[in-house]
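Re: beginner question about structure tokens

> Can someone show what the tokenized structure looks like for a real chain? I only ever see the sequence side.

Sure, here's an example I had lying around. Input first:
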Amino acid sequence: MLPGLLYFVVFKYVPMANAVIAFKDYNVVAGIWGSPWAGFKYFELFFNNPVFWTLLKNTLTLSLYALLVGFPLPILLAVALNEVRDGLFKRSVQMVTYAPYFISTVVMVSMIMLLFAPRLGVVNVGLQSIGMNPPNFLGSPDWFPSIYVWSGVWQNSGYAAIVYLAALSGIDPTLYEAAKVDGASRLQKIINIDLPGIMPVAVIILILTVGSMLAIGFEKVYLLQNPLNLGSSEIIPTYVYKVGLLNANFSFATAVGLFNSVINMVLLVLVNSWAKRVSDFSLW
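And the corresponding structure tokens:
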């Protein structure tokens, strides 16, 4: 366990002390602890910014959309694969669904751009061939959330299903035998055995997912951004990168990052409390 503990101590816990930059007018020459205090100046700048509510809305919209779509689909995929008896077919489906996870973000975005290119994209050409007038998918703020979320579902669902398949494999086989004796259908076995069997794992994953909602992936959103879709693609992480890091305003960037972390922590505590009330499973 020592290498893993050292990793978290060195790269996660020790840097927390430097979050004090958010409350200082950071100067590279003076250093973190030598820079003058600024109080809540950078938090106020962020909260009073005219784009604050737009950034928060876009971030929450993408996060909630990804959660509502991306959380149940791996469960359904795992349950479906668990019901497949043909070994070759099952392995083939697993390979096809797992493979996209290992595609890098840059390659994934390149594939999306090739598929949805306005003139030569496969999707647009296909829609034109059946007499439809395709929209500019990559340049439309309305289409951006769906492209981002569903491409993520295609890329990650197969890999996420591994955890649920492992949980399904740990269910006591005698439960299935008893259900078979009682004349339970396949659907009844799924509802009364499979889903309750994976519920502890599902609750923990849900809590952890909600606890990192505002920390939505920066790379993919930033690479898919263009001046036409900024209305829905500009989120807190991309704004921090542009305003805080590119302009070397490290105090502002740290303040926004600390705001993100605090909100995520509050969501984590709330969802954990809710899970403890409605079920027997929680993180603590």
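Each token stands for a local structural state, so reading them left to right follows the chain. The chain has a mean pLDDT of 89.
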